[in-house]
Amino acid sequence: MEIILKEDIIGLGYKNEIVNVKNGYGRNYLIPTGKGVIASPSAKKQLAEDLKQQAAKIAARKAEAEKRAAQLSGVELVIPAKVSATGVTYGSVNTAIVAEELAKKGIEIERKIITMRDIKKVGTYEATVHFFKDVEVKLPVTVIAENQPAPQTEEKAEKPVENAKENETGETTAIEQEASAAE
Fold it and tell me: Rounded to two decimals, what is the model's pTM?
């Protein structure tokens, strides 16, 4: 069944696009909720005429979407989450949390235009922000453990070794044991 969409539906299509859907989905959901109409020959002619008249508005919306997408270039999100000993998060990191983190950085984005799988482990993932039909931004999302200490850098690991070598008694101290275990 061909349907003309009346609004953007992530995963299906964008406003004024003709899409093929299963009969039940079109008749029982899209048409009754006003999200689509049947793509009859007369509806297709009306759509073509509307698109001609709205070409300037569509170009302005696309330019605005590209400007908003430019704000996200180079942005990487680091989200701290409570994590178990096995690296699994308590709960999950989802689009609402990503939208909150972007808001903290001063970028207001609706969570409805963000798509990603729910994150349930520590690691680096990718979220996609759909601004307009051809304007999408891939956003890297890194989930870190908030209840575990940060890994030591090499400089911090070398300092205990230097202190351990200054020990004149010849006994192995706790500092030396930690340094040898770190290596």
Answer: 0.60
